[in-house]
Amino acid sequence: xxxxxxxxxxxxxxxxxxxxxxxxxxxxxxxxxxxxxxxxxxxxxxxxxxxxxxxxxxxxxxxxxxxxxxxxxxxxxxxxxxxxxxxxxxxxxxxxxxxxxxxxxxxxxxxxxxxxxxxxxxxxxxxxxxxxxxxxxxxxxxxxxxxxxxxxxxxxxxxxxxxxxxxxxxxxxxxxxxxxxxxxxxxxxxxxxxxxxxxxxxxxxxxxxxxxxxxxxxxxxxxxxxxxxxxxxxxxxxxxxxxxxxxxxxxxxxxxxxxxxxxxxxxxxxxxxxxxxxxxxxxxxxxxxxxxxxxxxxxxxxxxxxxxxxxxxxxxxxxxxxxxxxxxxxxxxxxxxxxxxxxxxxxxxxxxxxxxxxxxxxxx
Length: 364
What we know:
Blueprint: E1 8-10, H1 30-48, E2 53-59, H2 60-93, E3 96-105, E4 112-119, H3 121-126, H4 129-137, E5 142-144, E6 147-149, E7 152-162, E8 170-177, H5 184-191, H6 194-200, E9 215-221, H7 224-236, H8 254-257, E10 260-266, E11 280-286, E12 289-297, H9 298-309, H10 314-330, H11 332-345, E13 358-363
Parallel strand pairs: 1-2, 2-13, 9-12
Antiparallel strand pairs: 3-4, 3-7, 5-6, 7-8, 8-9, 10-11, 11-12
Helix pairs in contact: 1-2, 5-11, 10-11
């Protein structure tokens, strides 16, 4: 029979057209680029033939290779983030001390606490930020229900503290990444252009900011005037071959010598923020990676830190997940892709996800 209902589509990964992955951050890893392009092409075929069935076949060995590539991608992004922070310190802050800052939570009560530990620059390149935070918390146990328990990790970041006053009145600089176990969400977000879906949906439009950043830098200053002066300075930064020697950045690479600004959003007048939150947020590329750089006043920084320390911060993550849950209800294929990527990148021992009209198999 030739009806659309009875059509079965088989798309082999090897047949994927040679194109850039829809997720910019994975484009430098060929295996990830191939996998994400494959999933994106399958989505396009299914959307064009909604009554057709589709067969997806994966190899466990290939998925393991993709997971290893994913880990390499994160480590490279972290390393470049630390190198960029080191360059910014040299240009803007002067001498600094570096601390690993973590927020932990007690499971029984939900109470939160913070820990700061002095670290050396080389520590940033020998382990991941997530491992730094996890190891710090593992040094602490609390007594609960008759046993000693390690607190759970809520947030971890690296703080650069200037040891003396600097020209731009910078109190501190902070770097952070999204937790590695959350990043598979980014793949699906980009395949389905989640930002566009969110903006079209009135119920969750105001939550679109929760699904955008991966690697971030925050510079905290005193006043609005300090913010504008610092933003202008960041926009004009350039590094010579000599500047790039210390953080071991490839010399003569134009993508290392300056920041390429993709987007700048000015929230100094509180526009678009009912809370009066203020900041200048920039999205830049550097050495092939994409980073968010935020300049923020001290008062807003302490409000955010206080919010992070409260139990109500759990609602922040809940609202972020609400975006994806709501969109999955409207676009079921989006929900299936989330389950599929979670299976690939987090729990390949679990049961394969299923979806009407899609047959998924995994071979050794």
